[in-house]
Amino acid sequence: MDEKLQVFDNVLQLVGNTPLIKLNKITKDFDGDFYAKVEAFNPGHSSKDRIALHIIEEAERAGVLKPGDTIIETTSGNTGFSIAMVSIIKGYECILAVSSKSSPDKIDALKAMGAKVYVCPAHVSADDPRSYYSVAKRLHEEMKGSVYINQYFNSSNIDAHFATTGPEIWNQTKGEITHLIACSGTGGTISGTARYLKSQNKDIQIIGIDAYGSVIQKYHETREFDASEIYPYRIEGLGKNLIPSATDFDYIDRFVKVTDEESAHSAREIATTEGLFVGYTSGAAVQGVKQLAAEGVFNKDSKVVVIFPDHGSRYMSKVFSDKWMSEQGFFDSQTKEEAQAIEY
Ligand code: PMP
Questions:
Q1: Residue with CA at minimum distance from ligand 1 atom 11
Q2: Atom 12, ligand 1: which residue's CA is nearest?
Q3: With a cut of 0.85, is the ipTM above it?
Q4: Is residue 206, in this structure, part of any structural domain at all?
């Protein structure tokens, strides 16, 4: 950063240091103070900027990556976008192997950020040579000097949040935080932040949000993988059908499960009450807060930090589309007049 001119050298200097914003309306009936850590303020509009930058810079320090080398990952979501952004600034090739289930909008966004996208068939098993896992692995093995981010099984994912998200929240709350509420996908955000916060005060309660249809909560309770928990659900980026090693279950006190429908309504409510246009999993996190408040988990001295992982613009054809909401049956509890009013 050029201090004299107050100009940033490049967009990567804006990664992290996201604001903590008080929730004033959506949590007004609950005991305690609630603050959102709004990760959409990252330049790539999500918390994944942190892990993309951290993992790539770690590979540079280890001498694995040199300019012109290639970075590989298997995601059409936030992580892919963040890796593409970091790759442009640092001069790397970015290859993303994605499932044919990914929406054209998402694939176009990755291409717009200079990534080479391999679209792989969705309905093959992970060990099929055509699957996006196999394609990424093969490309990584073939390309000397390439780095495979592999966010679900990369411990640097946890380190990124230990180094940045955790200290930021501790400092922003002057150490007064009592509860952390975070969605768990790879588990990197919750685990890394928890490790830092518990190193400062082991009494801080760490609560993960999981989806119905995911194995994570059950695994936390039993330490056993229960495939009968798995069924399709709509929230993207939350929960999983496998156990990621980027989740450190020992630092998480408990999980809460949320539904697709209630999370979608909560995401819309965050926009209309707090003026914060954030994504589906931010809605899931607030839905979790509502359930925890109903259980009596918080009291008037609670200082609760809720992570809002990404921006609402990524969900225009889903949660923020009345048509999509109707198609999912998420407006069924409304009156006929209300339902007609939202049709277009
Ligand atoms: N929300 C969204 C939108 C995400 O993309 C992710 C990442 N999969 C998460 C929440 C969960 O973050 P983490 O992977 O760090 O657990």
A1: 185
A2: 185
A3: yes
A4: yes
